[in-house]
Amino acid sequence: MKMKIGVAGYSGPINQPPVSDIKDLCEELGTAIAREGHILVNGGRDGVMELVSKAAARAGGHVVGILPFEDKGNEYLSLAISTGLDFQMRSFIMLKNVDVLIAVGGEIGTAIEILGAYAYAIPIILMRGSGGWTDRIVDVLIDRRFLDNRRKVEVFQAWTVEEAMGIISGRPWEVTSKW
Asked: CA dihedral defined by 35, 74, 9, 167, rounded to 10 degrees?
């Protein structure tokens, strides 16, 4: 089954740390999402969003950017949706339109998207070793899988893109979740 895969992560210049430190990971992720025939959905701007969008577009994939304010987005979007909303509010629109969220590094915006996805019972895959909130949030997981005692949906951890795509193709949340 083809899915709408959300990717959240660091914003900022793609040629400066921390984004430049995970460039290869982002490009591999965008390429894999496109090659599997999934639709990539993200915030449509710079940083991780730009790198995964560029890779997915070059691999022939479809890329949807859910944009804050009147931002025009990066040049790799197949569809740019201007929300007129601030960064946090547009994130919730993005989350309502994905089947799974992959987190790559990230600061407070990514943390909000991880928590929002959990609140909406959207499965989350943390790309470990990518830094930021993606790695920090692991320290608060209950049984290394849940963000609270309600156990709404599992938070998965992947160390490679291949592992993340394996989680998606196996869709273990369809077996383990209660939604």
From this structure: -10
Report how many helices (DSSP H) and strands (DSSP E) the chain contains, helices first. 7, 7
Structure tokens at 128: 């470990």
Using left for φ > 0, alpha for ψ between -120 and 50, and beta otherwise, residue 44 falls in left
pLDDT of residue 179: 35
**CA 22 to each of CA 15, 50, 123, 137: distance values in angstroms, whole numbers, following the listed order:** 10, 12, 22, 18
123: preceding bond cis by omega (within 30 degrees): no
pLDDT average, residue stretch 69-75: 94
Q: Which of 60, 46, 48, 47 is nearest to 7 (CA)?
A: 48
CB atoms within 10 A of CB 169: 11
How far apart are the C-alpha atoms of 154 and 151, rounded to whole Å? 7
Domain count, the chain: 1
> Any idea which residue has 């795509």 for tokens?
165
- DSSP string of 87-131? HHHHHHHHHTT-SEEEEES--HHHHHHHHHHHHTT--EEEETTS-
Q: CATH number, domain at 142?
A: 3.40.50.450
- Residue 176 in any domain: the answer is no
Residue 32 within a domain: yes
Q: Which domain holds residue 69?
A: 4-168
Average of per-residue pLDDT across 35-62: 98
User: Contact, 149 vs 123, CB < 8 A?
Assistant: no
